[in-house]
């Protein structure tokens, strides 16, 4: 539980900063700015500048290349986490060490305590859609893999999680299998074998949960056949996976018939999760930010089961725990844990005339960063983190709102990523604005019983003036041209940023273009990401694709079937 009343929050934060700086006192990066082993927050803030990844990339690259001196930390970094890199097409490395592992364990234990109080679980199992990624080594011999893989390959993590996490239905061979599609099939199969024991369903991101149950729609009859005969499908060819899964697969015609009948009786797969896993109490994973567009479909699969958003963190480190698990994902808040990192918050003010604008659309006025004890309820900030793994005053790029306090520690509500997504001249639109525009247009599809499976965007400057391009993959090819034309107009009008509206009116930004993609296109995008060494459980569809991300652009452009230009501002 979170109890920090006995130790004042300010002192807790100073103690955490002191530990970080003492452990890393000889780090080259800190000495570059003449910190000279001082550990007080005033000296730290006056000497060490705020930074973003590009400003420390050269240090991390030296570590990747084999420099085992004290570059960023006192102890050598032995592994790196690889972020998705789906927007720019280039993954980025971030340091990972034992201290980050311990903070992960603390975060998970804290949220579990609150979760289990509301939804107690017994000694059953968890249906976990978790996938390891390729474990590559850099030129300097440093292990580089996803943060998820760094955790699940750790003996320490597995031991610590035994107390608080139900055992995964699938053996390790499935989690670390070399082929995602085979691993997903076996996750579903193992989950069905242990269907009565499953207490909850989990994947790191909502996207991979939706993908898993969409796959179930396609392979359920094969899964039933495997269970009926007790023989694993020939689609699973990896020897280690076949051997591990075959040990738990036995002929069970009664279970196979039960699953078959339940699937046949479902209406458009609504409520498939509680139907097949009757003792599951909730569905768990990160569901905020770029995962919000998947909630509608996930709720369809979940039926009456609650969706619960997992904790707030990133490859850079953890920030807070979900201590209010009964809140829906759209309202979830996170209590900051003051001893896992040193936190600062950049106050973001709204310029005059933009007070009523959407939070994601504003070019904020920044003030000097404040500490964890100085934030104010209702105010908006950007999160800055100093962690034990060599990130100092690192700007996460996340905009959060202070929703309140749990005991004395702030509760944050995630608003959006700060980075601009779509901009041609004076217009400013972010991922959240794009999501809202798509949701507005999607209302027009509802009458035809269609939905947007996934989407992304592009700024096209190939002709003057430049214009926004929105790519859609739809659930069916049955949409009429009239409806899709209306959708293009709807999205064009839904971008309400003053710079965009003004530029559209005077035609310094061209008409928004909706490009409809073949079914399965975003599956190809994901497969491309997996080919770079990523893990599907960490995959996030890029909401904006840059021109430098040529491979993803090629996939999108070769799969365009229809294109519609908005006429919302005239032709």
UniProtKB/TrEMBL annotation:
Residue span(s) of domain GH3 middle: 334-417
InterPro entries xrefs: GH3 (IPR004993), GH3_C (IPR055378), GH3_M (IPR055377)
GO MF, one example: ligase activity
UniProt xrefs under Pfam families: GH3, GH3_C, GH3_M
Keywords: Ligase
The keyword Ligase belongs to this UniProt entry's keyword annotation: yes
Domain of life: Eukaryota
GH3 C-terminal domain sequence ranges: 432-548
Family the UniProt entry places it in: Belongs to the IAA-amido conjugating enzyme family.
Protein name per Swiss-Prot or TrEMBL: Jasmonic acid-amido synthetase JAR1-like
